[in-house]
From TrEMBL:
Keywords: Antifreeze protein
Species in which this protein is naturally found: Eimeria mitis
Low complexity biased stretches: 29-49
GO molecular function: antifreeze activity
InterPro entries: Antifreeze_1 (IPR000104)
Family of this protein: Belongs to the type-I AFP family.
Region (Disordered): 22-55
Superkingdom field: Eukaryota
Full protein name: Tubulin-specific chaperone, putative
């Protein structure tokens, strides 16, 4: 049925809805708010999916593993260097104490003889 013919009817659904909207606008405002919220949620989900896809394209799984392995190797090298430095410092601290102990032992032997 064409719109002109439909509008000429006394009781049409469109007229009923217009009357209802004018008499109780809060009903339609709630519907509009719900629709807007749904649209916003859908847009947020789409944006999140797009950003995840972009991140996956920028950092493929193999590249992330290579970065992790390189970082682990660098951390291991740094730990080994720190351990070597600590061992050298401990050795340097022990040597004077060992020399002093040897001198004390030699002095004690002289007194015993």
């Amino acid at each position: 049925m064409p719109d002109e013919v439909y509008e000429q009817r006394e009781e049409s659904m469109r007229k009923f809805i217009r009357k209802l909207q004018s008499s109780k606008p809060e009903l339609f405002q709630q519907q509009q708010q719900q629709q807007q919220q749904q649209q916003q949620q859908q847009q947020e989900q789409q944006q999140e999916q797009q950003s995840e896809e972009e991140i996956r394209k920028m950092f493929p799984i193999g590249a992330r593993c290579m970065l992790s392995a390189a970082a682990a190797a660098a951390a291991a090298a740094a730990a080994a260097a720190a351990a070597a430095a600590a061992a050298a410092a401990a050795t340097a601290a022990i040597q004077p104490a060992a020399a002093a102990a040897a001198a004390a032992a030699a002095a004690a032997e002289k007194h015993i003889d």
